[in-house]
Design a protein that fits this description.
Blueprint (H helix, E strand, L loop, with lengths): L23 H16 L5 H12 L4 H8 L16 E7 L10 E11 L5 E2 L4 E2 L3 E9 L2 E6 L4 E9 L2 E5 L11 E9 L2 E6 L15
Parallel strand pairs: 1-2, 2-4, 2-5, 3-6, 5-9, 6-10, 7-9, 8-10
Helix pairs in contact: 1-2, 1-3
Length: 208
């Protein structure tokens, strides 16, 4: 018999304390830590998108804690990371980028009778927004973005085309943004999603 005079609930008897629900401020703090970590090169664009989605949907602190457990306190004032790639040029050839590479928040791709294909899934970014300007003459680029990222495609194509083909669920509010401005003459730029590589995004350090 409990002190209240009521019999204990068999479903809760012996259970540990309930999980503490996360506040809006705690979710916003987690988002800030994740974005700072991406700017420092600790998270790839794909990892940032996945963790932000989970942070924004977290109900309890237990759901938030693993998302930032392998990241440093942003108040430590550590040395700024190396700057990302700002120019990618493919002239009568290619300038592909894939795997773990750094891209600046504003980058320019130039294709002349050639192409430069960019895979952003494992790219390290300088912040939650990336703007890529693609200038193609008799050439073009394929740009692969991870699922969960907001993508905007603008620009102009003459005797060519710029195409956007995204799959998966719509990105949540606050998701990373990739803006592509493509100017194509007798060429084009294709922006598309591809499935995640299936790696575990938590429980390991992504620091370079």
């Amino acid at each position: 018999m409990s002190l209240s005079g009521l019999p204990p609930d068999p479903e809760t008897e012996g259970a540990g304390p309930p999980a503490i629900r996360a506040s809006d401020a705690e979710r916003e703090n987690a988002v800030t830590i994740l974005r700072d970590a991406a700017a420092e090169g600790r998270l790839t664009l794909e990892e940032l998108a996945q963790r932000l989605e989970r942070a924004l949907g977290a109900v309890t602190r237990d759901e938030l804690d693993p998302l930032t457990a392998d990241l440093p306190d942003p108040r430590t004032g550590e040395t700024a990371p190396r700057r990302g790639t700002r120019w990618i040029v493919g002239i009568m050839g290619g300038g592909d980028r894939r795997g773990r590479w750094r891209i600046a928040s504003r980058s320019t791709v130039v294709n002349v009778m050639g192409g430069a294909d960019l895979d952003l899934r494992d790219a390290l970014v300088e912040g939650p927004e990336v703007e890529i300007t693609v200038i193609s003459v008799m050439g073009g680029s394929d740009i692969v973005v991870p699922e969960g990222v907001e993508v905007e495609l603008g620009g102009l194509a003459l005797m060519g085309g710029n195409d956007l083909a995204l799959e998966g669920a719509p990105p949540p509010p606050g998701a990373p943004v990739v803006r592509v401005r493509a100017f194509s003459l007798m060429g084009g730029t294709d922006v598309k999603t591809r499935p995640s590589r299936g790696r575990s995004q938590l429980g390991r350090s992504t620091q370079s």
